[in-house]
Design goal:
The protein has two helices and 25 strands. It is mainly beta. The longest helix has 28 residues. The protein is globular. Bound molecules: calcium ion. Calcium ion binds next to loops.
Length: 377
């Protein structure tokens, strides 16, 4: 469903169309599964006792998980927002604790949020975005050990960026290394909405820094700030052309997906959604918060996937034709709230549920890391 459709019709009609679409998707999915079964194909690439209809549950019992990092060997790291733990999921499906990020002070949407991993000069660093008593910050520490025994070296924590505003809500928290080797950080306005367009305030921004936290060369204002006028950035991903996309929670009218330009002003708090204003860049897509509340985003085999919390689905589209490609809803209400998505091994989508942080309704095994049934984009 394209965003224009949602803008032009009432919510009830949008719901009706969505239900119709879901029904067609379910039929299509069942058809594909039957076809694969007839052809003798293995529908799931990692069979497990909890595997069903081509989906595999890779980890269960997670507590308020927030971010997935897929590792080169097919394992993954997961952050837990409330207790600051970093969990390792091995390629063979073991779940264990790699360590606890020191100094995490959680509360509301703040706590341990985004993770990223980068090897620099022979040291493998875990980067983490987390809250302290007085700020949100990005730190890094060595990640040592072999798959199955990964360990955070919590005695060697280094600050990367400090002084990002912290509040009960609007804490941002996504971090990712771009194709240029720089670290990008999505922040929230931390309740000071009037400062989201203020270049001197680190809230309501996308930041771009070197791996050790200096303003990246070529940044538009000579500081760490890369783009301004965001409300609460939740997801960062690059498409195959190298363009940066970012998801953002709206106030109560429009959630946004933006294509980010260096120095761009995305309008908050003066504009929300597609305002057509001369002094701000419009989002490429908007959704009603009930249909989305978008968090993590990821490119998987040419498709951009967007995790949706309130929308309890994953949105998908082809970012090479953003104006004409239809938006497709995947897995609606199958897994509950979805916090993050990632490209798993073999070009498969992985998703992280978010039903245990007090806002969802936990199901058996929640929260979970899941490899859903394969879908074409
Ligand atoms: Ca905007």
């Amino acid at each position: 469903m394209d965003s224009g459709m949602l803008e032009d019709i009432g919510c009830e009609e949008a719901d009706m169309r969505r239900d119709h679409r879901s029904a067609r998707l379910a039929v299509a999915t069942a058809g594909v599964a039957a076809m694969l079964a007839l052809a003798g194909c293995t529908v799931s690439s990692t069979p497990s006792p909890s595997s069903s209809e081509g989906s595999s549950t890779l980890a269960t019992g997670l507590q308020a998980p927030w971010s997935i990092v897929v590792l080169d060997d097919g394992g993954a790291l997961i952050s837990q927002r409330g207790d600051g733990k970093v969990l390792e999921v091995t390629a063979s499906g073991q779940l264990r604790t790699a360590g606890t990020v020191p100094g995490v002070v959680s509360g509301g949407e703040a706590g341990l949020n985004g993770l990223a991993v980068r090897e620099i000069d022979g040291i493998r660093w875990l980067y983490a975005y987390h809250a302290t008593e007085e700020d949100n910050r990005v730190v890094r520490m060595p990640l040592s050990g072999e798959p199955g025994s990964l360990s955070l070296d919590t005695g060697q924590v280094e600050d990367v960026v400090t002084g990002i505003p912290r509040a009960a809500n609007h804490d941002g928290g996504r971090i990712a290394f771009g194709p240029d080797g720089m670290l990008y950080i999505g922040t929230g306005d931390a309740g000071q909405r009037e400062r989201a367009r203020d270049r001197a305030y680190l809230g309501g921004k996308i930041l771009r820094v070197t791996p050790d936290g200096e303003p990246a060369p070529g940044n538009p204002f000579g500081t760490a700030v890369y783009s301004i006028g965001h409300r609460n950035v939740q997801g960062l991903a690059w498409d195959d052309s190298g363009a940066l996309w970012a998801s953002e929670f709206g106030q109560d009218t429009w959630d946004e997906l933006n294509r980010i330009e260096a120095g761009g002003d995305y309008g908050w708090p003066d504009h929300e959604g597609k305002a057509g204003a001369a002094d701000a860049i419009d989002p490429i897509a908007v959704w009603k918060p009930a249909d989305a509340s978008p968090s993590g985003i990821a490119m998987v085999d040419g498709t951009l996937f967007i995790a949706a919390l309130r929308g309890e689905r994953v949105w998908a589209f082809d970012p090479s034709h953003p104006e004409t490609e239809p938006w497709r809803a995947r897995f609606t209400e199958e897994y509950g709230r979805v916090r993050d998505v990632a490209a798993g091994p073999g070009g498969r989508l992985w998703l992280l549920t978010n039903n245990t942080d007090g806002r969802g309704q936990p199901r058996e095994g929640d929260d979970r890391l899941v490899q859903p049934a394969f879908v074409e984009g």
